[in-house]
Specification:
The chain has 476 residues and is α/β, with parallel strands linked by helices. The chain folds into 2 domains: 8-73; 99-303 and 335-475, 3-Layer(aba) Sandwich (Rossmann fold). It contains 19 helices and 13 strands. The strands form 4 sheets. The chain has a 7-stranded mixed β-sheet with strand order 3-8-7-6-9-10-13, with helices on both faces. Strands 1-2 form a two-stranded antiparallel ribbon. Strands 4-5 form a two-stranded antiparallel ribbon. Helix 5 (124-137) runs antiparallel to helix 6, helix 6 (142-153) packs across helix 17 and helix 10 (239-247) runs parallel beside helix 11. The protein starts with 7 loop residues before the first helix and ends with a helix.
């Protein structure tokens, strides 16, 4: 900015415009002239998806141009030197090299997929019935249930000792770390040097059968207290150090991105991970990528999801019809135009803000570009989940509490992370799942959106009511 400060709004506006410029120049100009980015970003992020629907090439162009803009605009500001371009960060001398500590669990490896759900652990036919119920209710896409059934039918797939599953954001509630260790696999854990995180991860590692590989400072002893104090890799401030450590690991790397931070820091850490991803891909030919997408974003969805939503809209009761009329059409309007193929599901939540939207969108762009280049990519839409970060946001927590009134199922973290880990296994054993003609179909495959794609109402038109109902339930 003119006064020398750095504006995340200016960054987001410019990046969205750059992503649109080749495919949708009118949309690019509209983004550039948006005067209230904090509240006006929603339509521009939707337009990025709509512009990409023109063709496969259009979608890849939007993704490639958006990433190029981010890499050109983001800068590295070290503590003891001048700022540099993001792509030059790996040419700087790394901090002292990290060593690897390995902790082997004492449990027995599980070779049957099971899913924690509402106080039970579902296996076999019980799990199959739950998948059927979710499909019938519109909570997951049919392809999601099919993928999980394939894992159930091939229990040997759960043995991931032939992979090195790198969990960036190892302490994240949505990550696959507990499941991979439960199945006896190898997890490479990357998270901040905070002892409380590593104490929890070490307890998990001891309980299960797998091996946990930790980055530690040189000279760290091998007892749990010393490991918790000496473990960690800071992707924001010591990215070259983390990259050097990962490059030195043996075995095929599956680079899983599960990082999260609040506010503008989320964009910074997401870009650090993207720079790391590109660097590792340039240095190693065996890197696969894994991403979890938020369901509170804009996605193109199959015609079958549109028909499901239309059926529900036609069957809505008198009270909800009246509420729509009384609100002047602002509340409970239909999720899609009739017959849309594909439909556009716009589940962006204003309370999450443009920084969150940009951080999640750049991950989608990286998945699209990498898949187009032939990289094995696991990209899955995860369900709405009661994570700590969600529950800290009072309005969002209330909306989740009232969401079931509109056919949306909000998952507990243990259910979500196990389901997503099973879908990761499916992708690793099937080369990333089936090939599709267009990137939107890759994103929609095996989505577990919690019902947001198949409910009768556009999610934001029901959000306020869900908040009120959720607050009422909490007070009751």
């Amino acid at each position: 900015m003119a006064d020398g400060t750095r504006s995340t709004s200016a960054l987001g506006r410019a990046v969205v415009a750059d992503g649109l410029r080749t495919v949708d120049p009118v949309g690019a100009r509209s983004a550039e002239h948006e005067t209230n980015w904090r509240h006006g970003y929603l339509g521009h992020f939707r337009r990025l998806v709509e512009a990409g629907l023109l063709s496969r090439e259009a979608a890849v162009t939007v993704a490639r141009d958006g990433l190029a803009s981010l890499h050109a605009r983001m800068r590295v500001v070290p503590d003891d030197g001048p700022e540099t371009a993001l792509d030059e960060v790996f040419t700087a001398p790394a901090a002292p090299a990290l060593h690897t500590a390995t902790v082997t669990g004492t449990g027995a490896a599980e070779r049957e997929l099971s899913l924690p759900y509402r106080g039970q652990r579902l296996r076999g036919d019980d799990l199959r019935r739950r998948l059927d119920a979710w499909v019938t209710a519109g909570v997951v896409e049919p392809s999601c249930a099919e993928a999980v059934r394939a894992v159930l039918a091939n229990p040997e797939w759960l043995d991931l000792r032939d992979q090195r599953v790198v969990v960036l954001g190892a302490g994240a509630e949505m990550g696959p770390l507990p499941s991979v260790l439960r199945w006896g696999g190898d997890v490479v854990a990357v998270d901040l040097p905070r002892p409380e995180i590593w104490r929890r991860l070490l307890r998990t590692a001891h309980r299960y059968a797998g091996r946990l590989h930790l980055p530690v400072r040189p000279g760290t002893a091998d007892d749990d207290q010393a490991l918790a104090a000496g473990a960690g890799a800071d992707l924001l401030h010591r990215l070259p150090q983390a990259a050097e450590w990962l490059l030195g690991l043996d075995g095929r790397l599956v680079l899983g991105n599960y990082v999260y931070a609040d506010g503008a820091t989320n964009v910074r850490v997401a870009m650090a991970v993207d720079a790391l991803t590109r660097h590792l891909q340039q240095q190693r030919a065996d890197v696969a990528l894994a991403f979890l997408a938020t369901p509170t974003d804009v996605f193109a969805v199959p015609a079958d999801a549109v028909r499901h939503a239309e059926h529900g809209y036609a069957a809505r009761g008198v009270a909800r019809r009246s509420l729509r009329v009384l609100s002047g059409g602002r509340l409970l309007h239909r999720n899609y135009p009739p017959g849309a193929d594909p439909g556009i599901n716009d589940s962006l939540v204003p309370q999450q803000g443009p920084n969150y939207a940009l951080a999640k969108r750049l991950q989608r762009w990286r998945a699209t570009v990498a898949r187009d280049a032939g990289t094995m990519v696991s990209f899955k839409v995860a369900p709405p989940t009661r994570t700590r970060s969600v529950l800290r946001n009072r309005a969002l927590a209330a909306a989740y509490a009232g969401a079931h009134r509109f056919g949306i199922e909000v998952f507990e973290p243990a259910t979500s992370n196990t389901l997503m880990a099973a879908l990761l296994v499916h992708d690793l054993r099937t080369g990333g799942g089936p090939a599709h003609a267009h990137p939107w179909q890759d994103e929609a495959y095996a989505a577990a959106h919690g019902g947001l794609w198949r409910v009768p109402y556009a999610p934001r038109s029901a959000l306020g009511l869900a908040v009120l109902l959720g607050l009422g339930a909490a007070r009751g």
